[in-house]
Design goal:
binds flavin-adenine dinucleotide; single chain; five-stranded antiparallel beta sheet; 2 domains; Uridine Diphospho-n-acetylenolpyruvylglucosamine Reductase, domain 3; alpha+beta; 28% helix
Length: 372
């Protein structure tokens, strides 16, 4: 590929930059197999919306394997509620096809209009309905992966953990079989909450309600950015009629939620973190973040929150990570490690990851220099 055209493939939503040796766009699984077999270093790439630099090629040594053309939506089993799709299928395209058949895929993330199924599986995304449906790993029947020799393997439930959430360091996911649900009719409420203690107690109550499928938090700054009054807000989605907003009003609330990311990035917040904490530590966390002026939003129902840092605030990130650890939390709840957090991986986790990598990718071809 021409050097000027390669630029777009040398970055992702993390806004970090790298350098590619080449970029290739296979259209079939056979083409993926033959490219992988004869290439030394491969970086699998879906839509490039990852926030940890996982699909960025390094030092001009990597060939970027753009999987977006593996976008076939294949055989569909309405009775068993499963569907086979290519790794490059975009989430929204899948949902549109399923909705026509009265079905849906329960995982939903903010960038559903661009992210690919392969990228979502490689990062084991959770997203806004995690409080009810967990991570994407719960919704996979099997995956087809290409190893470093170019061989194709089908991996069932017992072997998924070698690939799901491994950020492409163990092989290339080319095709998957997903589990589905009947299409749901949803309603929602937008709740204004005066203080962080109340946020915690409302979230605790909501989590007991099995019909609640989403609990999203917006702090005061983000609320104002969304045109709301300067208070905390919770967006609560229900899979019954309990929500006050229905039909078009429900859609409008979800559209507002979709705009949060553009608002944050448009406001020069270049780094969006993805920490995870227990609900009862939330008050301490938000008190600290507000003391240094850092906005925050996220999936409070599962404790995954996104503090947003502009260039001047990036200096607070190490301090925040220390604080989160002190609160018993995790520094990465959903975006992954990529190149951004490689120095922060716990030694024990690293040992396990190295073993998996050696076993699945003995030629050390995939995403070298990432995660471990
Ligand atoms: C606006 C926005 C909102 C987001 N919201 C969420 C959210 O709610 N929850 C969440 O968990 N994440 C979220 N993310 C981050 C999320 O990780 C990605 O959006 C998505 O999962 C990646 O899909 P992608 O196709 O862009 O993958 P890419 O960015 O292209 O790749 C991501 C990683 O997966 C690997 N990879 C990609 N395809 C394959 C494949 N076929 N086989 C093997 N490895 C592969 C890459 O090498 C890389 O390491 C968000 C990002 C943005 C920009």
């Amino acid at each position: 590929m021409r050097k000027d055209l390669m630029k777009a493939y040398e970055t992702d939503a993390s806004q970090l930059n790298g350098r590619a040796l080449d970029v290739v766009h296979p259209k079939t699984v056979m083409e993926v197999r033959s490219i992988v077999a004869k290439t030394q270093r491969i970086v699998p790439r879906g839509a490039g919306t990852g926030l940890a630099g996982g699909c960025i090629p390094l030092n001009g040594l990597d060939v970027v394997l753009d999987l977006s053309k593996l976008n076939g939506i294949g055989s569909f089993d309405k009775e068993r509620r499963t569907i086979e799709v290519g790794a490059g299928v975009i989430l929204d395209d899948l949902q549109i096809c399923l909705a026509r058949n009265g079905l849906e895929f329960p995982i939903n993330i903010l960038n559903h209009n661009v992210c690919t199924v392969g990228g979502m599986i490689a990062t084991d995304v959770g997203g806004s309905r995690m409080v009810k449906y967990g991570k994407i790993s719960n919704w996979i029947k099997w995956i087809d992966v290409v190893d470093g020799y170019g061989n194709l393997h089908r991996k069932g439930v017992t072997e998924l953990s070698d690939y799901v959430g491994m950020e492409g360091i163990t092989g290339v996911i080319v095709r998957v079989c997903l589990k589905l649900l009947p299409l749901k009719k949803r309603t929602a409420s937008l709740m204004k909450v005066e203080n962080s203690e109340k946020v915690v107690s409302i979230v605790r109550d909501l989590k007991r309600n099995l019909n609640v499928s989403m609990i999203e938090f917006l702090d005061k700054k983000i609320s104002v950015g969304m045109g709301l009054i300067e208070d905390y807000h919770l967006i609560v989605e229900y899979e019954d009629n309990s929500g006050l907003l229905k039909g078009r009003e429900y859609e409008e609330l979800m559209e507002m939620r979709n705009r949060i990311y553009s608002f944050v990035v448009g406001g020069s917040h270049v780094r969006i973190e993805d920490l995870k904490i227990m609900t009862d530590r939330f008050v301490k966390l938000i008190t600290w973040l507000e003391s240094v002026g850092i906005p925050i939003f996220g999936h409070i129902g599962v404790g995954i929150l996104h503090p947003c840092f502009n260039r001047n605030q990036e200096k607070y990130i190490p301090e925040m990570m220390k604080f989160v650890k002190k609160l018993g939390g995790q520094i990465s709840g959903e975006y992954g490690i990529g190149i951004l957090k490689i120095n922060l991986v716990d030694m024990n986790d690293k040992k396990i990851l190295i073993n998996v990598k050696k076993r699945t990718d003995p030629l050390n071809k995939f995403n070298v220099g990432k995660v471990i």
